[in-house]
Amino acid sequence: MQEIFSREALSEPEYMGCLAAFVASFSGHIAQARNFLARLEGKQKGAFFAWEIALDQARYGALIVLERWKDLNERFSQSIDGLPGSLPSGESSARAEQACQDLAGWNERLDAAERYDPVLMECYGAALLNLLDGLAQEQQAARSAHARFDQTADTSSKPLTELKVLNVLGSGTSPELSDSGMFHQTRQAFLNDLSRR
């Protein structure tokens, strides 16, 4: 998280980019975990090692993403709370912390089990959906951010050098990205930060 955390503050497009990255990354980990839970249901531990590794990467990856989102909200609370359309950083951080605790508890149950019992797997899968439900405000804000910033320009697949730049200061020395460009660039940077273990 060095790239994002090295900044002094976050602007609204930067915060929204981080939020969109968090939601995409966390949702992806949850979907992967649910997929491998279904594949492993009823199986003995150690019998399908590759699937077990994939499940572990997904469920512990989700924990890392939650912790980093919580850290971002705490690190940038002053700038986030002053932004229009942002979620209150303290509340978002608390939801992430609660989700971390819930997920860690389910991970402990699964780790302690002798096999991938169908009832346990079904309950674990339902708990993962509940984690997504608990972050509904973040999901809605991310959808709104995409609707807003994707509408103004589609820069998600363009390299930085091709993005339209605006020289807000007029000095010619420090051109800045448009809000849409800043959103997409920060989203990608935070996705990269979230994928690092």
Model description:
This protein is mainly α. It has one domain. It has 8 helices and 2 strands. It has helices spanning 2-5, 12-40, 49-75, 77-81, 89-112, 118-134, 136-152, 179-195; strands spanning 165-166, 176-177. A two-stranded antiparallel sheet has the order 1-2. Helix 2 (12-40) packs antiparallel against helix 3 (49-75), helix 3 runs antiparallel to helix 5 and helix 5 runs antiparallel to helix 6 (118-134). The termini are close together. The relative contact order is 0.19. Residues 153-174 have low confidence and may be disordered.
TL;DR?
This protein has 197 residues and is mainly α. It has one domain (2-195).
Mean pLDDT: 87
Strand order of the largest sheet: 1-2
Uncertain regions spanning at least 5 consecutive residues: 153-174
Number of helices: 8
**Overall outline:** elongated
Question: Cα distance, first to last residue?
Answer: 10 Å
What is the CA-atom radius of gyration, in angstroms?
A: 19 Å
Please estimate the helix content.
over 70%
Largest sheet: 2 strands, antiparallel
Total domain modules: 1
Oligomeric description of these chains: single chain
Report the β-strand fraction as a percent range.
under 5%
Count the strands? 2
Q: From the helix content, strand content and strand pairing, which structural class follows?
A: mainly alpha
Order of helices and strands: HHHHHHHEEH
